[in-house]
Amino acid sequence: MKRFATIVALGSLVLLAVFLLYPLALVLDASIRIDGTGAFTFGNYAAIVKSRYYLGSIGNSLLAAALATGLACAIGIPLAFCLARVDVPGRALLLTLASLPLVLPSFVSAYALVLLFGHAGVVTTALRGIGIPIGSVYGMPGIVIVFTLTLYPYVVMPVLAGFQAVDASMEEAARNLGGSQSYAVRTVLLPIVMPAILAGGLLVFIEALENFGVPAVLAEDRPFLAVDIFKLFAGESDANPAAAGALSVLLIACTALALLVQRHYLGKRRFSTSARSAPAKLALTPGLQLAAAIMSWGIVIVSLLPFAAVLMVSVLRFRGPVLTWELGLDNYATLLSGSYRPLLNTLTLASTAAIATMLIGAPIGYVVARHRSRLSGLLDFVGMVPFAVSGTILAIGLIVAFNSGPIVLTGGWLILVIAYVVRKLPFAIRSSSAIVHQLDPSLEEASINLGVSPSRTFASLTVPLMASGLVGGVVLVWITAASELSATIVLYSSRWATTTVVMYHAIEGTGAGLAAAAAAVLILVTAIPLLLVNRRVNKQEATVI
């Protein structure tokens, strides 16, 4: 068994060294050289520190990420608590709808809201016409709103699981000591689920900090790190790979610092419980029951406003760049009359990346959970590095690494799949290791004692036991890869353009209706597997109950 773990660990480390650490090292090297390739210098960092523009870019990015994280937690934690502990009507449907914001590319949500609530948006214009003044959605408020509405499911999912896993005796003990229900929630439940809250909040913070599409649509003249990095690397007139590398390193440092703060907090406290019995639903008064239902459904309905905006825009006619209230299917007709290749590329690349991610991530998660050693510890650390790296930065590193030399990948499909796999690998590792922790190791030991090889035991026994969790992980990776923009916009070639790239360029031009129609199709295509998985999970829960 030790040999199997060593082979998996060494093979995984080699893959991560070639396709993650080496590209990132080249980005770091470019950041400390004149013009990215010249003599050694720290002048690139000094120029950033002296620049009010770039300091403002860093400040805006951190502020937007922090505000979005706070608001996502403010709505995600109560919603997760209601889903876990309150008998909310339509819970299964509510949980499915709460997952949908992950399907829609965030920059499409941003632009749909611009068409409705921008300076000349149809809703803004209509309200002003009847004497109701309203500000536009541009700027920091709009960016934070879009981040909050699209990223809060990252808080809901782990916190919901945390509330469901709390041992009921902990809450009962607090009540028996004279504490009220609200006191037990504040002093017992919330502290116990704090790791889940921090995990979800950290994911929101990093995703918002590294997001390229939303600031590109809503920032106007405000600088943001992810947008500046892309412009400095890919700009036709002001390309500056050295400055792009320096900003990339600073962005990685910000996300790494957030990870270290979280680990420091968790390392000083213990949160485990025996979890002998799951907590029961709360016995609330009819008034509180109604309030919980209204709050839960209200949060989800508001978060689906970008979906409604996209669907509305997709069936409205445009006169040039101007949106009208005239209904029609012109946008879908234009979309269907064009090439289907971007949609096929999206489905092909996302499917390949999802399968490859789980094929690589499941063995890594197994080794990390089952075999504690310095090698597995190193693998665990390196496997989490992509969590702190934005798609734009990884894409830049891959281009620099594989644009020439013995291995040339630029311009093809493989470099896109590699970027997706590396970016989503932490999800696969964490979900796989969490499942393995719940499996009794004596089953594997018995199989090996009967003469079955460790590798065959893993493939024929452990993987089937992990199947339900792996399917969920595949769907999550598939959905997020299908809506990926930050890495794709840097790496794609004309032959391998995806639906998100088509939407982004349509939004940049005058094809907003086409972008909305493409987004509606992408929503339908990516939502189907999500709905099927949630339906299966809900059936399993009902069977257990």
What does this structure look like?
The chain is an all-alpha fold and 545 residues long. It contains 27 helices and two strands. It has a two-stranded antiparallel ribbon. It comes from Bradyrhizobium rifense. It is found in: Cell inner membrane; Cell membrane.
Please give the CATH architecture of the largest domain: Orthogonal Bundle
Radius of gyration: 24 Å
Please indicate the count of domains: 2
End-to-end gap? 37 Å
CATH topology of the largest domain: MetI-like fold
Q: How much helix is in the residues?
A: over 70%
Q: What is the multimeric organization of the chains shown?
A: single chain
The total beta strand count reads 2
Poorly predicted runs: 271-276
Mean pLDDT: 81
User: Topology as H/E string?
Assistant: HHHHHHHHHHHHHHHHEEHHHHHHHHHHH
The spatial strand order of the largest sheet comes to 1-2
What is the CATH homologous superfamily assignment of the largest domain? Answer: MetI-like
Keywords: Cell inner membrane, Cell membrane, Membrane, Transmembrane, Transmembrane helix, Transport
Family: Belongs to the binding-protein-dependent transport system permease family.
GO cellular component, one term: plasma membrane
Main location: membrane
